[in-house]
Write a structure and sequence with these properties.
By secondary structure, the protein is mainly alpha-helical. It has 2 domains: about 70 residues, no CATH class; about 30 residues, no CATH class. Helices cover about 40% and strands about 0% of the residues. It has 4 helices and no strands. It is flat and about 55 Å long.
Length: about 100
């Protein structure tokens, strides 16, 4: 995950280039990835300071519309029930049961 300062810098740049003061210069930006995997790097910071660098704590968060994926297409087309169970375990608590 990127530091919120990177998104705020992109916002300022797009506003300047497009001469538009709306968020991100009034263009649609699509961010993809697994945001729960990696936290922004914040060396020698307290827990509170670490939480403050997330995009959610940015002034940009009011203009963000979030969409979630509802179907794992790789599992859907695989058709193997054990693949669905494996995907459920990974998104559950991250632990894989011994029978897998």
């Amino acid at each position: 995950m990127s530091h919120k300062a990177a998104f705020e810098a992109l916002d300022v740049m797009l506003k300047d280039i497009r001469h538009n003061n709306n968020i991100m210069g009034d263009i649609t930006i699509m961010l993809t990835g697994v945001f729960r995997q990696a936290l922004p790097v914040t060396p020698r910071r307290t827990r509170a300071e670490e939480m403050h660098v997330f995009l959610k704590s940015s002034n940009l968060s009011n203009g963000i519309q979030r969409f979630g994926l509802t179907t794992n297409m790789r599992v859907y087309f695989n058709g193997d029930p054990s693949a669905q169970q494996f995907a459920d375990n990974l998104l559950g608590n991250g632990a894989i049961s011994p029978d897998n």
